[in-house]
Amino acid sequence: MAKDMTLLWGSGSPPCWRVMIVLEEKNLQGYNSKLLSFEKGEHKSAEVMSMNPRGQLPSFKHGSKVLNESYAACMYLESQFKSQGNKLIPDCPAEQAMMYQRMFEGLTLAQKMADVIYYSWKVPEAERHDSAVKRNKENLSTELKLWEEYLQKTSGSFVAGKSFSLADVSVFPGVAYLFRFGLTEERYPQLTAYYNSLKERPSIKASWPPTWLESPQGQDMLKDV
Questions:
Q1: What are residue 134's phi and psi, to 5 degrees?
Q2: What is the pTM of this model?
Q3: Cα 185 to the chain's mean position, in Å?
Q4: Cβ(141)–Cβ(223) under 8 Å?
Q5: Cβ neighbours of residue 29 under 8 Å, at least 6 residues apart?
């Protein structure tokens, strides 16, 4: 089954990591995995462009079916292999509603994180403003405090209830990225506990970004957020 699957991915990319976590959770190891380098521009290669004309990773293919959006790939895999591996969408309507809510709120968290981390990369130097940097950091801080409240209500183990779900698949890689870029553990105790707990989950350990293993020391860009 997994031999019919191909994943083109980049190390450290939260969207790529989401798909890899689901593949692990659904016991779909053995898929065709190809690690590409963002630094070398390999995500713009002909191989990627043939699957994903946006030139982005991940690029995922199952048989003749191509899914390049990480949320779409994760939801597809859970739907197609519902009875295999770990169940990632709860049956209880209330729990399922919460899962979808937190899952898609994760996109807002990811965007506010990107506004801070990638500001200098995305905005031309002549158009950068200290006030924008300050505002982006304040917006991210407000967002993180919201997630602190969410985790406090669920006792911190999972973002959407009592079990690991697609909400965690979607949100955890971004949380790990935040700490990789220097988020202060003391300032966000619930997120810290969540991160420390889930980073030991087998599917997450098995798919941990290899570049992070090679260089455990991250950056301190978020130390004052």
A1: -60, -45
A2: 0.95
A3: 19
A4: no
A5: 2, 23
Residue numbers in the chain where pLDDT is lower than 70: 156
DSSP assignment of 62-126: ETTEEE-SHHHHHHHHHHHTTTSSS--S-SSHHHHHHHHHHHHHHHHHHHHHHHHHTHHHHS-GG
* H-helix segments, the chain: 14-25, 46-51, 70-80, 93-117, 119-122, 130-153, 166-180, 189-198, 202-206, 210-214
> Can you give the pLDDT at residue 2?
86
Tokens (6 digits) for 49 = 């462009």
Beta-carbon contacts of 83 under 8 Å, excluding residues fewer than 6 positions away, are none
Distance separating alpha carbons of residues 124 and 116, to the nearest angstrom: 14
Predicted confidence at residue 216, as pLDDT, reads 82
Cα–Cα distance measured from residue 175 to residue 192, given in angstroms and rounded to the nearest whole number: 9
Location of structure tokens 């519902």 = 82
The type of residue at 89 is I
Burial tier of 147 (Cβ tally within 10 Å: 0-12, 13-18, 19+): buried
